[in-house]
User: What shape does this take?
Amino acid sequence: MSVIPDPPDAQTARPQVPAADQTLRILRHLARRPAPIAATALARELGIPRSTVYHLLATLEEHGFVVHLPQERRWGLGTSAFELAGGYARQEPLARLGRPILAALADRVGENAHLAVMSGRDVLYIVEERAARRPALVTDVGVRLPAHLTATGRAMLAALPRAQVRALYPDADAFTDRTGSGPMRPSELREVLREARQTGLATEDGEVTPGFRSVAAAVHDRGGWPIAAVAVTWEGVRDAPAVTEVQEAARILQTRLGYDRR
Assistant: This one.
């Protein structure tokens, strides 16, 4: 999830702009955590005064880079942080490395394949490979769709800490509808994601476009954060075509990005 490299002398050099340095350190620390963290723990682990941490978190919250979970008294990454990570991925390496993998996947299964990244509560499609004699889909490059309705979005949401999902979808107002089906409340989304976690695959059936189904697998970074998802979409009521091919494509992309976790 972290997209800001550590400078070689980060531990010894005195920052010219302390507030900026502390803000970036907070974001990097949150990105490397598997779950939201208390502000007091942030201050202790980073060696930043607690009052400064609270002020910086408040500013970051205003801009959507962090979210506060009041019941747990913890802080996690917000939707703007996902925008930042997605922007990095879109700029080159993910799409460039993913395109030939997706083309090969589409050829093998004979169905359309696509690659998406999270962008707030949406997914953004960055690669679309159409199989021969298959219809065009709504999932063209540059299109955004609600993450909770798509197989790619569900695959990535299932890989996030549960507290992070609650922060993104705190209540029914966070949900949108396309076809009259799909989760519309946090409890319904939890059940969808529970199934995806158990199988390692996410699916959707007519919730994006009536008559079309999709299956997806997430691509993770070294920390286990989902950075993208690979999916195949097909028309009709038949079962998913070669789901193992989708998982293998995600694994190959993860490896080529340098994030092989095996």
User: Anything to note?
Assistant: The mean pLDDT is 86. The beta strands are 66-69, 74-77, 112-119, 122-129, 144-146, 202-205, 212-220, 226-235. The chain has nine helices and eight strands. The radius of gyration is 19 Å.
